[in-house]
Every structure is written in C-alpha cells, then in structure tokens.
Amino acid sequence: MGFFGSTIGMAVFWIALAVIFIIIEASTMGLATIWFAGGAVVAAISTLFIGSIIVQIIIFLVISIVLLYLTKPLRKKLKIGREKTNVEAIVGKTGFVMETVSPASFGQVKVGGIMWTAISDDPGGVIDIGAEITVIGVEGVKLIVVPACKQGM
Fold this sequence. Notes:
Elements: H1 7-28, H2 34-46, H3 53-78, H4 86-90, E1 94-99, E2 107-111, E3 114-120, E4 132-139, E5 142-147
Helix pairs in contact: 1-2, 2-3
C-alpha cells in the first residue's frame, strides 16, 4: 500500500491541497479559491472515517460547491472580484477646468491627468478656466461637475 493508500497519506495530501488553495487565496484576495481550501480540510477530516478516495473526492467537491454557493452573497456585498472602472472611480475626485464649463454648454476638465468633457451642475453658472472642480456624476462619457468649494452643498 503506497503513501496515498494510507489514511495519513491522504490526510497529508488534502491538507497540502488546502494550504496551496490558501496561499493562492492570500495572493489574490478575491475569494477565488477559499471554498476549495474548506473542501480540502473537510476531505482531510473525512480520511479518519472514510477510506475510499472516490468518496473523499466527492466530499471535497460537494463541500467546495456548497461553500461557493454560500459565499456568493458575501462576494456581491463586498464587491469582491469587481474593480471600479475609470468612470466609476472618478466620482468624488477633484480636477481643474481647462475650458469653461456651464450648465448650458460642455467644456473640458482635467481629472487625474486625463482630459474629460464636462458639464456643470452648478446653478450658479459658469465655472471658469483654472477653477477647481469636484466630479459628482458621470453621464455617458461626460462628467458632471461642481466647483470644489460647493461639493456637499
């Protein structure tokens, strides 16, 4: 009987597999493999009671799938695995007017070193060149901005 045929050998295999999945998870931080680590741990425990490798593999797969299913709402709540796009990340940032912006006409602003077409949401009127602005929204490919001093009003 070889290493993998023994109870200790299979337990070591499942624990080593769990450690590998945990290392991968730690490097990605995206809940990508954590459920497989859980499945491997349960499979390792099952070696104390079940000698069949096929049954251990089935336990590993079932537990992994159940954990995947149970962590799906957590992934959505934490927004894991989804990075903000440039457009989503730009809301709340500040920049400067490069071409006059008003509620009635588009101008140009520079935010994070990138030029954007923008329109003002400031009922006070025109935002002149050089003024600092805050992005309060995005409509299509255009930013909606207000003077930085008016943000939060």
